[in-house]
Write a structure and sequence with these properties.
The chain has a seven-stranded mixed sheet with strand order 3-2-1-4-5-7-6, with helices on both faces. It has six helices and seven strands. It is an alpha/beta fold and about 190 residues long. The chain is globular. Strand 1, helix 2 and strand 2 form a beta-alpha-beta unit.
């Protein structure tokens, strides 16, 4: 399995193989925005890709290719909101979380995904970086979102996987209540 030619270290066989091994047993898998990644992973297990409306024609082509190859790929236009029910996703994959420049917006994205995860679910960020500062920033984002069991792996030079498990339900409820109780308070 390999990503598109210009996907670099993220689309390498080593990186995609590592992602597939990480996600085995964590289905259904949801891929945010990265259509190429969803299509590549669909050769191994069922994938739901949530893409922006402007990727509609590319999404239709990807679904046709997946159907022709008998790969289970479903694509939904999601816009800004993630249209997932509570506790349905075994894994959520985000490509280049570091592209979200505002730390609070990136944290809000992660926190917003948590209700969709099953109790044994994982969130994986796949980022192209060689910098330790980026590794630390990603780990801090996962910690701030109350993810547990956070690990990082470099399956290939230039590719970084950050993995976190869904927090216990009580942590999510306490965190949400705290944010509602103290509007305008700076987050820790």
């Amino acid at each position: 399995m390999r990503g598109p030619l210009l996907s670099g270290a993220l689309g390498s066989a080593a990186t995609l193989d590592r992602v597939c091994r990480l996600l085995q047993g964590h289905q259904p898998t949801v891929v945010l925005s990265a259509l190429w990644l969803a299509e590549a992973l669909a050769s191994s297990f069922p994938v739901l890709a949530l893409v922006e409306e402007d990727k509609r024609s590319a999404a239709m082509r990807a679904v046709r290719r997946a159907n022709k190859a008998a790969h289970p790929l479903l694509v939904v236009s999601a816009g800004e909101d993630v249209p997932l029910a509570r506790g349905v996703a075994g894994a959520i994959l985000i490509e280049n979380l570091m592209d979200v420049e505002d730390h609070a917006a990136a944290e809000d994205l992660l926190v917003g995904l948590l209700p969709s995860l099953r109790l044994d679910g994982v969130v994986v960020s796949l980022d192209a970086t060689r910098h330790q500062e980026t590794e630390a920033r990603l780990a801090a984002l996962f910690l701030a979102a109350a993810l547990t069991g956070i690990t990082q792996a470099r399956p290939r030079e230039g590719a970084l996987l950050t993995i976190g498990s869904a927090p216990p339900p009580t942590v999510t409820v306490v965190r949400a209540a705290r944010l509602l109780a103290v509007p305008g308070e700076p987050r820790e």
